[in-house]
Design goal:
single chain; 204 residues; mainly beta; six-stranded antiparallel beta sheet
Length: 204
């Protein structure tokens, strides 16, 4: 990914944020737009995202209409002309799609807010969902999707202190608490009993 694309993503997420912005981290990027979703053979048509909640396909152009910077960035990341609308939790509508490389991209829309919108792509391999990655979240706030069997997610610091946690409903989660970029070190996936299923290192 070129530095030019990364610079545009940093400037575009969310749009426009007067005091803060999502910034690309490690093998993650922030985005939204139109192209064609190419699904790897490992993902059957009925399991595009690899989770139980596959949502409903909607035109990408209808996800965050009018957000030209996000649209342009997503075009370069080859997100398709449709995304899956997964549902709304805590006032946050969540969309997801696989790009041409098979990586999952998220789009979020705080439906009652003008500027709280953003896009995020996981560029890691094997990526979400996999044994080592049960949660896909924006790094500064618990908002995203979780693998089947995950009942809750939590941000923790280097000492294991819980900074924020929120339940998972139908593979979706959205906390109203903003932790901020670089504050949390890990995101934990929890089962219904509160047992940690996986502890993922966040990009530093």
């Amino acid at each position: 990914m070129t530095s030019d694309v990364m610079a545009r993503l940093a400037a575009a997420n969310p749009v426009p944020a007067p005091t803060r912005a999502w910034r690309p981290r490690r093998r993650y990027a922030l985005v939204l737009a139109a192209a064609v979703v190419l699904v790897p053979a490992a993902y059957a048509a009925e399991r595009v995202l690899g989770i139980g909640n596959e949502g409903t396909a909607v035109p990408t152009s209808s996800v965050l209409p009018g957000q030209s910077q996000l649209d342009q960035a997503l075009q370069e990341l080859q997100v398709g002309d449709t995304m899956q609308e997964l549902g709304t939790v805590n006032g946050v509508r969540i969309y997801a799609a696989r790009n041409a490389g098979g990586h999952i991209c998220l789009a979020i829309d705080h439906v009652a807010e003008t500027y709280e919108k953003g896009v995020f792509c996981d560029l890691n391999d094997p990526g979400f969902p996999s044994a080592g990655q049960l949660v896909l979240t924006f790094p500064g706030q618990l908002q995203g999707i979780a693998a089947d069997g995950v009942a809750g997610v939590a941000f923790v610091d280097a000492d294991g202190n819980v900074l924020d946690s929120t339940p998972v409903t139908n593979n979706l989660f959205a906390s109203g608490t903003r932790i901020g970029m670089g504050v949390a070190v890990y995101v934990e996936a929890l089962d219904a009993n509160g047992t940690v299923l996986a502890k993922q290192k966040l990009a530093g």
